[in-house]
Every structure is written in structure tokens, then in C-alpha cells.
């Protein structure tokens, strides 16, 4: 247990030696006698060894005031505050040992060099009792526990709420496209003005993490997520009542800003309470539900548009977000470890102050966290919040290349979303509900991808796959976690993305409907493995900076991907579905080398980064 002290300035160093006063003030108006010890101030030869004095009421009050003032002066000189760092593994016995006991004696002390007032003698004080009756730790303090130490039910609740939150965010993004034609028909405007609602959403969705995610690392995830849910409800209410395209674009921008933490932030929340070794499965569920919702939104919205009208796309989202807000308020706990530790220190320090009230405590003990040592001003915090993701993007090679990779994948996803209405409604004349059924391929593909990723991770955890060659054991033979192991599945399955794109381009028009459906399923598996690899790898390598790293890649992929529903139709019109698919698949093949590069040279790349927290992760695994 580490500690450091803060000593106020004193005039005499020897005033720190505790002394107690023995007062013998007679009743007012009576005589008192005191035997004086011989010394330099002893009475003269013609004086009596016993003296008598009469203290008047005025003199008595003056004497009491003088003693009181001197005691207060000495007390203020001698107060010492000693600070201790609170860790998750700090023993309760250490905390109780520093707390004043209920029957601690009250002792006063003065500077021994100060001249004694008349009628007082000084004797050394006895040592204080050693806390014979230990006090009880506040229950509020004990309720706050390390998120890594939560049980499976508590971690499961966090994971379920995070998955639900990302479903609502993805639904709000993708479901909008199914109502474009109905909005154009109602408002009698150009189609582009309505289509811009998609990139306006992704614009807010991509820029908000620059501020929200780093702030959540300081102020807590739950409070930021609750605020974003409230803003989503207001924005969706406005979108449901909007009467024109201009207001619709403004509300879509606001909705994108509000929905962003439900995607970019919750990945960090899962990382907050799961060790690196056990984080893969929860993040796989989170990623698969988010990707499946990208297909579920258009699927349900197609039926809503056909039977209830396009405004019900928003009303359903409003109902879903209202339920999500209730879940967060009543069931979601804060997951940010340093924020929880700071709350524990505040409770502990308040408790210590209450115990010290009315007592003379020569040394006051206070607690703080190591994170508090680096707290910044509000202006500095805002500056860091806005610049750190950009700094990561342009200085951290891992973040840069993962952002490029994720951006391409997201462009393919949104191009895929725009190509389905183009091919099956404009070319094959499907109804909105029938065309929406094509998105079942995306939903099924997302869950198949999740099962494949889980099976791959399980197989790679078998003993025959664990060796020093692939970096999954230490030199002493003990098993460890290597962040590059998160990329093995993407090395195997990422090529399914360009394969599915080419297959879709050549079978959409002249093959039975299930053939392009299979192609879309293969594309989804490829997209999912890349999406999951990005989240897992950045969370493992940047740990406490994971939200900032994820915010950087989220900005790139959403900012670029949001414009592809507009661009995709123009590309297909100009060069055709087959040629356009081949061009995009070629880029996908080139980017498939990204995970292979990191598998081979990832450890060296991370060693050159000051933010990659390999040692922190190894410590987390060791303490698991």
C-alpha cells in the first residue's frame, strides 16, 4: 500500500511531539496552592516555597481563552494528511487499520517550546489505543466491485443490454432506406434530397465518438449511454412528425449523433468487464447482433411501409429505444473501472471525515486513485477528446490500417444494402415486403458467422494449436493470450467477402432467388469476421484507450459507408452490376492481406506504440 503525506508549515519542528496539558483551575474566587519545582525560574530566597493566589472571574475567563487559543494554534500546526492509493486488491484490513476507532481518546498537543500558561503543568501523553473496536466499512463502498470480478449473470446483463443497444442503432441506420420512395411520393421532392438522410445519419454517427468515447473513459460509460438514449428518443419523435425533407435531414443528423454511443461505446463496455481471454464470445455476440440488425431493420421496415406507412419505421424505433432506456436505467451498471474506483474513494473519504469529526486526529488518512494523479482541466479534456482519435488514426499504424480495412467492409455493406432495392425492386419489380425478405440472407449469415467464429476460437484454444510458434504460450510454458490470435478467423474467412460480391454480381439477374441469397450470406460472413477482428484486436491492444481507437475506425467506416447507398446506384447504372462487383471485389482481395501482416509482424508493430497495453493485458490474464 503506497502513501504520501502532506505536512502544513510549522514554526517549530519539535511541536510534532505530542504533549498533553493537565489543568488545575480552582473554582472562581477560591484559593489554590501549587508547589513549584526548582529551576531557573524558582522563587527567590526570600519567597515562600508555597504560594497562594486568588483568581478573579475576569482572570479565569482570560486564562481559559488563552489556553483554548494556544491549543487551537498547536492543533492547526500539527494536522497531517496522508494519502493512500486505492486499488481493487487493497485489503479491507489495511483500510480499517487507518480508520479512527469509536473510542479513540481525544488528546491535545502543543508546541513544547511555547511558555506554559499560569496554573498548568505538562506531562507526556500516553500512546493512543490501537483501534480496539474496529468500525464497519460503509455498505455503499462494498457494493462497488471490480467489473472483471463480476459473476456471469452480471456480465451477461451488460452484454445483453449492449447487444440490444447496437440493434437499435443499426436498425435506425438501415431501416430508413426502405421508406425513401414513400417519402419522395408524399413530399413531391427529388429523390436525392431524401436519400441524403442516410449520409446525414452516418455523419453524426461517425463524428460523435470523437467526443463521447474519450469522455466516457473519464466520466463513465453508463451516464453517456443514458444521455444518448434520451437524445435518441427526442430525435425519433421529431422524425416521426416531420413534414419536409429539410427538417428530416437535420433530425437524421441529430439521430445519428445520439445513436453513435450505442455502437461505438458498448464495445468498450464489454471490454471493461471481460478479460482478454474471455472477451471473444461476448464481442462476437455484440458484432453479430449489430450486423443482423442491419438486415432486420430493412426486413421489418419493408412490411411497415407497405401496410402501415413509412412513419411507422420511426414509431417502432421509438418504442424499441424507450424499452432500451428502461433497461439501462434499472439494470445497467457502470463498467469503467477507474470511474468506479474514484467513487469508492469519495465514499471512503467521506466516511473517514465522519469518523474524525469531534476527535483530534494527528494524522488524517485519505484515499485516492492513481488515475486522479493525471486528471486534466476541462479545456485540456475537451482538447484531448477531440484530437486523440485523430492522433490515433494518423500515428498508430494499427488503427490506420484497421480503419481502412473496416471502411472498405462498411462500404461493401452499404453498397449491398442499396443494391438489393436496385436489383429486386427496380429491375425485378418486387414489392417492398417481398424485397425485404431478401435481407433474411444477411440475418442468417450474421448468426452463421458468429457460430463459425466461436467454433474457430474454440478449436484454436485446443492444446494442439497452442505453441510458442504462434505466440500463445510464454517462454516458461505458461499459456498466455496473444492479440494476434484474434485475427486467425479473419485470415480464413475474410476472402468470402470478395467471393460473395462476385457471385452476387453474376447471379442476381439470371439465377433462382436463392443463389444471390447464398452470395449475400457469404458476403455477410466475410463482413462479420472483419468487423469482429477489428473490435477484438483494438480492444486487446489498446485496452483503456479502446474507445478512442474504436472511435477512430468508426468515424472512417461510417463516414465513407454512408455515402454508398447514393453512389452504389450510380455505379451500377454506369458500368453495370457485374463490372461494378468485380471492381469492388478486387479491392477486397487486396485488403485481405491486412490480418496476415499483423499475424506475422503484429508484435513488433505493437512494441513501437506507446499506447498498446500488452503488459496490462498480460497482468489481467494472470489475475483471472
Automatic annotation (TrEMBL):
Residues 158-604 form the Major facilitator superfamily (MFS) profile domain. InterPro entries: MFS, MFS_dom, MFS_trans_sf, Sugar_transporter_CS. It is found in: Membrane. GO terms for biological process: export across plasma membrane; xenobiotic transport. Residues 125-137 have a biased composition (Pro residues). It is a multi-pass membrane protein. Keywords: Membrane, Transmembrane, Transmembrane helix. GO terms for molecular function: transmembrane transporter activity. Residues 30-51, 100-137 are annotated as: Disordered. One of its GO terms (cellular component) is plasma membrane. The chain crosses the membrane at residues 156-174, 194-212, 283-306, 312-332, 390-417, 437-460, 487-507, 513-538, 583-601. Residues 102-123 have a biased composition (Polar residues). PANTHER family: MAJOR FACILITATOR SUPERFAMILY (PTHR23502), MAJOR FACILITATOR SUPERFAMILY (MFS) PROFILE DOMAIN-CONTAINING PROTEIN-RELATED (PTHR23502:SF134). Belongs to the major facilitator superfamily. This is MFS general substrate transporter. It comes from Ascobolus immersus RN42. The lineage of its organism: Eukaryota, Fungi, Dikarya, Ascomycota, Pezizomycotina.
Amino acid at each position: 500500500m503506497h502513501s504520501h503525506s502532506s505536512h502544513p508549515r510549522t514554526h517549530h519542528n519539535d511541536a510534532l511531539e505530542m504533549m498533553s496539558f493537565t489543568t488545575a483551575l480552582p473554582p472562581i474566587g477560591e484559593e489554590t496552592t501549587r508547589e513549584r519545582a526548582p529551576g531557573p525560574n524558582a522563587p527567590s530566597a526570600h519567597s515562600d516555597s508555597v504560594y497562594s493566589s486568588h483568581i478573579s472571574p475576569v482572570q479565569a475567563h482570560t486564562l481559559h481563552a488563552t489556553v483554548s487559543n494556544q491549543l487551537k494554534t498547536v492543533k492547526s500546526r500539527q494536522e497531517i494528511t496522508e494519502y493512500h492509493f486505492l486499488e481493487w486488491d487493497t485489503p479491507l484490513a489495511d483500510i480499517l487499520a487507518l480508520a479512527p476507532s469509536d473510542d479513540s481518546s481525544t488528546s491535545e498537543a502543543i508546541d513544547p517550546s511555547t511558555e506554559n500558561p499560569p496554573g498548568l503543568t505538562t506531562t507526556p501523553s500516553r500512546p493512543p489505543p490501537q483501534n480496539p473496536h474496529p468500525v464497519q466499512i460503509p455498505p455503499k463502498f462494498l457494493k462497488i466491485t471490480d467489473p472483471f470480478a463480476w459473476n456471469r449473470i452480471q456480465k451477461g446483463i451488460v452484454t445483453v443490454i449492449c447487444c440490444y443497444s447496437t440493434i437499435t442503432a443499426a436498425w435506425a441506420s438501415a431501416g430508413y432506406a426502405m421508406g425513401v420512395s414513400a417519402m419522395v411520393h408524399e413530399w413531391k421532392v427529388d429523390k436525392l434530397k431524401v436519400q441524403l438522410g442516410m449520409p446525414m445519419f452516418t455523419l453524426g454517427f461517425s463524428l460523435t465518438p470523437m467526443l463521447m468515447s474519450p469522455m466516457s473513459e473519464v466520466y463513465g460509460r453508463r451516464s453517456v449511454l443514458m444521455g444518448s438514449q434520451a437524445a435518441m428518443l427526442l430525435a425519433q419523435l421529431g422524425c416521426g412528425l416531420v413534414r419536409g425533407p429539410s427538417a428530416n435531414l437535420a433530425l437524421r443528423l441529430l439521430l445519428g449523433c445520439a445513436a453513435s454511443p450505442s455502437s461505438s461505446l458498448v464495445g468498450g463496455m464489454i471490454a471493461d468487464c471481460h478479460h482478454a481471454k474471455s472477451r471473444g464470445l461476448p464481442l462476437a455476440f455484440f458484432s453479430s447482433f449489430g450486423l443482423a440488425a442491419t438486415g432486420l431493420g430493412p426486413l421489418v421496415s419493408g412490411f411497415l411501409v407497405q401496410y402501415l406507412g413509412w412513419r411507422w419505421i420511426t414509431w417502432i424505433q421509438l418504442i424499441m429505444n424507450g424499452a432500451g432506456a428502461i433497461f439501462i436505467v434499472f439494470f445497467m451498471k457502470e463498467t469503467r473501472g477507474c470511474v468506479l474506483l474514484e467513487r469508492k474513494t469519495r465514499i471512503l473519504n467521506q466516511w473517514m471525515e465522519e469518523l474524525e469529526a469531534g476527535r483530534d486526529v494527528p494524522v488524517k488518512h485519505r484515499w485516492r486513485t492513481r488515475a486522479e494523479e493525471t486528471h486534466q482541466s476541462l479545456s485540456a479534456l475537451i482538447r484531448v477528446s477531440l484530437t486523440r482519435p485523430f492522433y490515433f488514426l494518423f500515428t498508430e499504424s494499427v488503427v490506420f490500417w484497421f480503419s481502412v480495412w473496416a471502411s472498405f467492409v462498411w462500404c461493401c455493406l452499404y453498397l449491398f444494402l442499396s443494391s438489393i432495392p436496385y436489383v429486386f425492386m427496380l429491375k425485378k419489380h418486387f414489392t417492398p415486403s417481398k424485397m425485404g425478405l431478401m435481407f433474411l440472407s444477411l440475418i442468417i449469415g450474421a448468426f452463421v458467422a458468429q457460430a463459425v467464429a466461436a467454433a474457430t476460437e474454440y478449436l484454436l484454444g485446443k492444446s494442439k494449436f497452442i505453441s510458442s510458434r504462434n505466440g500463445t504460450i510464454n517462454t516458461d510454458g505458461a499459456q498466455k493470450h496473444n492479440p494476434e490470435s484474434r485475427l486467425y478467423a479473419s485470415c480464413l474467412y475474410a476472402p468470402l467477402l470478395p467471393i460473395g460480391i462476385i457471385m452476387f454480381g453474376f447471379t442476381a439477374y439470371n439465377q433462382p432467388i436463392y443463389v444471390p441469397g447464398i452470395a449475400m450470406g457469404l458476403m455477410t460472413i466475410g463482413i462479420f469476421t472483419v468487423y469482429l477482428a477489428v473490435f477484438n484486436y483494438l480492444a486487446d491492444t489498446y485496452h483503456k484507450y479502446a474507445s478512442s481507437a474504436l472511435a477512430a475506425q468508426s468515424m472512417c467506416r461510417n463516414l465513407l459507408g454512408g455515402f454508398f447507398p447514393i453512389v452504389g446506384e450510380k455505379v451500377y447504372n454506369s458500368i453495370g452490376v457485374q463490372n461494378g462487383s468485380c471492381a469492388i471485389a478486387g479491392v477486397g482481395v487486396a485488403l485481405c492481406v491486412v490480418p496476415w501482416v499483423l499475424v506475422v509482424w503484429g508484435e513488433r508493430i505493437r512494441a513501437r506504440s506507446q499506447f498498446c497495453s500488452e503488459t496490462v493485458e498480460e497482468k489481467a490474464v494472470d489475475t483471472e
